[in-house]
Amino acid sequence: MARLGVDVGGTFTDLVLHDPLRDTVHTGKLLTTPDDPSRAIIEGTQRILREAGLAPRDLTSIVHGTTLVTNTVIERTGARVGLLTTAGFRDSIEIGREIRYDLYDLFLEAPPTLVPRHLRREIPGRLDASGEELLPLDEIAVAREVTDLVEGGRIEALAIGFLHSYRDARHERRAGEIVRKLYPRLALTLSAEVAPEIREYERTSTACANAYVQPRMRRYLDKLEADLTGIGFTGRLYVMLSGGGIAAVREAKEFPIRLIESGPAAGAMAAAFFARLAGLDRVVSYDMGGTTAKMCLVEDGAPDHKFDFEAGRVRRFVKGSGLPLKVSVVDMIEIGAGGGSIARIEQGSGLMKVGPRSAGAVPGPVCYGRGGTEPCVTDADLLLGRLDPGYFLGGEMALDPDRVRRAFAEGVAEALHLPPVEAALGVQRIVDETMAAATRMHLAEKGRDPRGYTLIAFGGAGPVHAWNLARLLKIGRVLVPLGAGVASALGFLVAPPATDMVRSHVGRLERLDWNVVNGLIAGMAEEGRALLAEAGADPAAIELTPTADMRHVGQGFEIAVPLPSVALGEADLPAIRRAFFDSYRTRFGRVVEDQPIEALSWRLACAAPGQDIRIRAPEGAAQAGDRPVPRGERPVTFEVHGALPCPVYDRYALRPDMSFDGPALVEERESTCVIGPGTRISVDAQLNLLLELG
Fold it and tell me: How far is the C-alpha of 487 from the C-alpha of 14, rounded, in Å?
């Protein structure tokens, strides 16, 4: 009955194994193998099973999240893709929205399209906005163009995106039938299947991106399934979707673009799980790994969601500079601030910058001794005393402080005319202020005040920086779960089987044909239940939550509005209007009640209950309420207080109701919690560390 969660990150691959029969949780962490991510998965799986005393056949399931999709888009290493589109719309994906993401940059670089112009072909045939056929599909042109694309253009995948196919997909479906008959092995994506929503640019962009990553993702998953079978695994392999739900491998192979934020979503689901256990209804999830830091708002036990995303940005953190995708994702911000973020002196200004470039797993930070020469955030943490060079990864990986000291002395410290420790403190200041500024902006955009929230910190570097980040944000409480360094992998095990369905049908509320709307919702429910049943869910336990994208007539963008039921009618209009005004007021602080309202897209969230995992204290001599005994002491340099002696506590020796004061260090295998002075630390019933900042 054991289940395994595996999170492949840019620097480390994290694993969490839950054995419900023995009520045990085992964790593992090893360096990612960028050349073949499945190699680290297999090595980590075999190792954690040995430590748990289990065999591969004892695993009923493995839930996996990966950065392969987003890396493929960012690095432009995907398939050679062709596009069939409506005559006259060949250049839509290049024209985009005709909006400049930087108004004042005369040399602005537009996000490159995934399909070059010579591989985009126009097909005669046209439907209008209501789905009526204006011009029949030219089937001969479809066969001719796809033959030329495959034989002459050597494409590996094909996307089909016709105008208004969200309203009626018959032309796309017929073109797909022709393509499959001619080339049954060609990877094929229909825009009406991957993103059946209004706005042809975003829908076609999503279809092209799906086709772009589909061959590589299929090869990866096929190899991973074969490798797992080779070590004796006979259970089911599942994947994490960007929206935080669990899906079957078939869905991942067919719609891999839905995995664009697979790994980060697991962290948000883990934070929501910890928040529910601790009884917290307002939480900021803070996941800092080796490459990036992710922040997400979690309210009432669930992370925020959105239904659009930008991938492969020209400027990594500038909105509008990437490829728009219509996919369901957990709404979070990603910052180029991780343990591997490289510190450098900017030419011209002479100022020190940290990130977003990362050393990753290869060569990694200087202290790893694997060829890295540029000092990183982890190197600065080591130099400041935050990390024990002999206990990194539980002592498996020795860190080299002398190598780090030389790298700082010969690099940024020398350029700044500062001692190495002062330069390292500067790295910490920059990275923490960068994360704090991004978090403030993210919360401000949602109308939230960070002072009313609890920070849940995890990831390998999260607990190291959480105390100072909370201080900068004026957040008074920090929660650090047991096994924080691999908490994202735990998120795979507690996330529910879930998927989000969408169909577009535009109309004013008072003019809608509710039979059409109910037909759309019923179709989505049937498809969602089938997908979740394939992902192992009990069909009788699946819950359906309907929402609609709505706006005032004439507005350019819409907001998500909860609906009162999955079967709607005229009698529900007052409740729908109230829900729209409530959502509008929350978003904008005011409402305009005398303007007509229209709906654009209808959504259905389908979810089955996730599995709970209870963290219990391991057997040992210490009892609840005893005063913890430090296992040592070392000096740590803090920004405000300078170098202070800090007692070092063993995380695995702490029990519920224990408490102590900062400054202090709490070490476990995968991470270290750094706590400054003026802080009260207690251990709750789930073995979480609760930091109450003075």
Answer: 8
CA dist 225 → 34, 218, 237, 419, 531 (Å): 18, 10, 7, 51, 19
Q: What is the largest CA-CA distance in the chain?
A: 80
* 3-class secondary structure, 404: helix
d(CA 486, CA 480): 12
Q: Which of 119 and 292 is assigned the larger pLDDT?
A: 119
Contact between 435 and 285 under an 8 Å Cβ cutoff? The reply is no
CA-CA distance, 568 to 125, in Å (whole number)?
Answer: 35
The residue among 484, 470, 514, 486 whose CA lies nearest residue 691 is 470
Cα–Cα separations (whole angstroms), residue 670 to 31, 332, 406, 629:
12, 24, 26, 21
Question: Which of 608, 609, 600, 611 lies closest to 528, judged by CA?
Answer: 608
CA 388-454-560 angle, to 5 degrees, is 125
pTM of the model: 0.88
Helix, strand and coil in the chain, % to nearest 5: 35, 25, 35
Burial per residue of 488-526, b for 16 or more beta-carbon CB atoms within 10 angstroms, e otherwise? bbbbbbbbbbbbbbbbbbeeebeebeeeebbebbeebbe
CB–CB of 606/529 below 8 Å? yes
Gap between the Cα atoms of 85 and 164, Å rounded: 11
Q: Match 């998120």 to its residue by tokens.
A: 491
Tokens describing residue 297: 């708002």
Binned at pLDDT 50, 70 and 90, residue 358 comes out as confident
pLDDT the model gives residue 618: 54
Helix, strand or coil for residue 431?
A: helix
Residues 125/132, Cβ–Cβ less than 8 Å: no
User: Is 16 in a helix, a strand, or coil?
Assistant: strand
Contact call for residues 285 and 264 (beta carbons, < 8 A): no
Which structure tokens are listed for 512?
């809608």
CA neighbor of 408 nearest in space, from 373, 434, 438: 373
Q: Using H for helix, E for strand and C for coil, what is the string for 235-256? A: CEEEEECCCCCEEEHHHHHHCH
- Is residue 78 a contact partner of residue 19, using CB atoms and an 8 Å limit? no
How far is residue 75's CA from residue 216's CA, in Å, rounded to a whole number? Answer: 13
Closest by CA to 311, choosing from 300, 299, 303, 319, is: 319
Helices (H), 55-188: 68-75, 92-95, 139-151, 170-182
| The residue to which tokens 């995890």 are assigned | 458
Q: What is the dihedral of CA 552, 553, 555, 559, to 10 degrees?
A: 40
Rounded to the nearest 10 degrees, how much is the dihedral formed by the CA atoms of 285, 367, 633, 619? 60
CA–CA separation, 312 vs 306, rounded Å?
A: 18
- Tens of pLDDT, residue by residue over 245-284, are 888 899 999 999 999 988 889 999 999 999 999 999 999 9
Report the distance separating Cα 458 and Cα 466, nearest Å. 9
Strands 477-480 and 689-693 come out as antiparallel
Residues 682 and 691: their CA atoms lie apart, in Å, by 7
- Say yes or no to pLDDT of 87 above 50: yes
442 strand-pairing partners: none
CA–CA gap between residue 294 and residue 70 (Å, rounded): 15
Cα–Cα distance for residue pair 262/244, rounded to 1 Å: 8
What does the pLDDT look like over 594-651, one tens digit per residue? 899 999 999 999 999 887 777 665 555 455 567 889 999 999 999 888 899 999 999 9
Residue 487 phi, psi (nearest 5)? -60, -30
- Fill in the amino acid letter for 646: C
Tokens representing 62 are 């493995």
Token code pair at residue 451: 């002072």
* CB distance 217 to 71 below 8 Å: no
Burial (CB count <10 Å: 0-12, 13-18, 19+), residue 623: exposed
